[in-house]
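Handout, section B. The chain below has 528 residues.
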Amino acid sequence: MGDLRELGGKVSLDVTDWKTGIAELNRATRVIESGFRAAAAGMDDWAKSADGLEKRIESLTKEMELQEKKVGLLRKEYERIAEEKGKDSRAAQELLIKLNKENEVLGKHQVELAKTKTKLEEMGKESKDAGRGAGELADKEDQARTATGRLKDALDGLKAKLGTLGNDFRNLGDKVLKGLVVGIAGIVAAVAGLTVGIGKLLSKTIQPASDLSETVSKIGIVFGDQSDKVLKFGENASESLGMSANAALAAAGVYGNLFRSMGMTERASADMSIGLVQLAGDLASFNNMNPEEVLDKLRAGLTGEAEPLKSLGVNINEALIKERALELGLWNGKDALDASAKAQAAYSLIMEQTSLAQGDFARTSGGLANQQRILAAKLENLKAKIGQALLPLITKIVTKFQEWLSNPKIQKGIDDLIEGFRTIADTIGRVMEKLLSGDIAGALSEIFPKETVKQIIEFGKALKEVIVNVIIPFVKKHAEGIKAAIVGPSETIPVQGGRPVLGTWQNVFFCEFDGPRASRRIDVTGVW
């Protein structure tokens, strides 16, 4: 991040070649962004730390400086072209679209910078409040420690009176609950462990392998004799595009299926599909976008939707498509333009208008963003390979499990288990109904034998008697002592210059819980 302060001065604009200037600014912006990401990678969550927010502010400030230069350069070129060729000329319109897009990017930077600064200020305020609260909490902990010791002495008498009650409760628990709790806990732990283990195995390895197998099968059907070429392209996609084999092949399959439905040959469909997936990787790198989002925008453009392509710097319309179809010999200029000719003409225009972005992934593959994409793609490929090794075994297990489930004895066992759950549900329903009507004894009778219910009722009566006749009178009689134990008999106050050192919301009070009395003696001890 130390280089961020220097980048603004390194970009020199060649005004005689505005495209070179734009390319330099884009490169410098990517260097700044990758520098910030490298610094942020060493933090758990940069947005939750002051250091991370400061680095983001520094990064955004430099990016805005470069973005302002880019906007100025585009505006100057647009004004020149508009004056020479007219504002309605194709060249002027294309420059205006780019200028509006860069202004939008600049606006987003400004909004993010303002939000980041506000969050940093709020974080500083919260840190001060937390420091003050920590000091107050430490004081309360000292008071609670002293009060706990005094309260223990006051409750010793109560402990002896509750001894018999505790023994009765333990005996009841041993008879009724011990076996049930241990058994249920063991079953739940075993089932949970098995479920989590199988779920992780399937989701992380088997599913990617199954998806890749389905995609490869689709490639063979769609591209026929050209499928080997497409599969080889998918094998190298992690290094050349930052896409997993499955992602690249799935995208090619979608494009190929679209082209084949338009009547194109297997060769043309394969070549155009590979070209579009490669272009999607370059555009994603060039515009810092998600590759899947770029793939969707390109597919929409091939079917006649021009609006999604504008965010990729592509501006096509019906007139341009017809003009290009005529140039390529795909249309006679008279009859209706069919879907195949329209798609091929749109493909040609898209490739022509994205020439600056083509090859961007290879040019910037050493940067942090693309290195992260390559790593993620390779990890996805690794999971698929592991899954392919496990897939035969899992298939056998699933087949055997299905055979096991089809066994009449197993089916009967499952039915019996379901019936058991139904019985439990019915019992719970009857218990809740009696509880809501106030029939506690009746509710307990649905669960426990009569003798156990009798013991529980007697235990409840004994507990009520202890609370009413022992605990409540004790608390009333010793209320002053309990409060005094909680508050504590003394307080330590720092003194400086003959005056107590107190916080903004602190003060000193004398609390009299057993009184009032005619006189009280307060001892003050100073420690130097």
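Note. The CA atoms of residues 466 and 472 lie 9 Å apart. Compare this with the example in section A.
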